[in-house]
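Exercise 7.
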Amino acid sequence: MPKVFNWHLGRRMHFPYEEKHPKRQFAAVFNTNRCIACQTCTMACKSTWTFSKGQEHVWWNNVETKPYGGYPQHWDVKTLKLLEEAQVKRGVQPLWNSAAPHGEKNFYGTYKGLTLFEAAPSGEQVLGYLPTDAEWRFPNIHEDSSTKSEGGGTLGIDKSGVSLPEHKAWFFYLARICNHCTYPACLAACPRKAIYKRPEDGIVLVDQERCRGYRKCVAACPYKKAIFNLQTRITEKCIACYPRIEGKEPLTGGVPTETRCMTACVGQIRLQGLVKIDPKTGLWAEDRFNPLYYLVRVAKVALPLYPQFGTEPNIYYIPPRWVPRPYLRQMFGPGVDESIERYMTPDRELLAVLQLFRRDRRIIFRYELKEGPKVYETVVRGKPFTLYNDTVIAYGEEGQELFHTAVEEPIHERPKERYNSI
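Solution. The predicted structure, written as tokens, is:
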């Protein structure tokens, strides 16, 4: 296999194809602290793309309750177990070397374990498994199922109480779509070369004319977002609503627009956009005031999902602050502690950028911060925190202002003679 550079792992790794990168990359940040599992995103995607015969079990977007939920069932637990067994067999310790100074190319440290490509059995390109039909039956299994608190009785309620940052009994919601990975496992596994990344935006698509339904991609994708259509007998997957990304959505005046799942989000957990890619290194090119670049590369609050798989996913998550850290480190890598600390006591710029989530359907390419007055100060977990009523301005692809919003939302009081709006 050729070797490619994976900046999530801080090293070069094996991949079936030579390294090649798009001009820009479709990417998004999901804030798990805000998700209420209303499934509005799920149904927005379903009603737009997967409502046809043969697609009954196809959910390109879904929201899972962790740690027990998953669609298909056990998708991550099974993959993690297979990877662990492969590493034990080869005598490899799956450790992160996070002590060394971090730079552009070892952003989270260096991963010493095997990736899914390096752990692949003989004759295969990727280590994976094909889910059974039964595992596709329940897209919201174990919804709102909490872990049990020791000493909390059958309901898991702890009489002594709990305090942040971690609860003794916990669950959280994980919204998922295709990660449109930099090194897609589905693409690597396809013997027909029917899967490709678009050079203009890095969106991963299936050429349905070439696909023969071998389901190698379904087995290989560690996130199980390549799904077999039982009617057409070919694989389908999230297409990142690419007509909207291309600016073909008439409701927004022909400018690049966020996907359906992003724009439908009630909890305002999602921010989607396009990041510039350095063609020489494959790293994100410096774009300081792109909100995604800021959240991932500058503030470091948004982390990849299971970076140890080696696919370099492009959907990033702000981890939930109340969940035990070892569980989160397995899921999001070694940057969890720093991410949560920064999120819980955000600085002035981070607090302003967080206001951009779901304020508009149009993709934000740049933001500007205009400072406002100090309105509040306190101490959060022993750290001073000051709130400023700053204004953040969002700009589109052509530099046009999309909107501006303040950190402090205005409070409107009804006049006494009109308490009831009816």
